Amino acid sequence: MTLARVLAARRLELFAVALASAGAFVAEGPSAVPVAAVVGFFAAKSAESLRRAAA
Question: Domain ranges in the chain?
Answer without folding.
Answer: 3-54
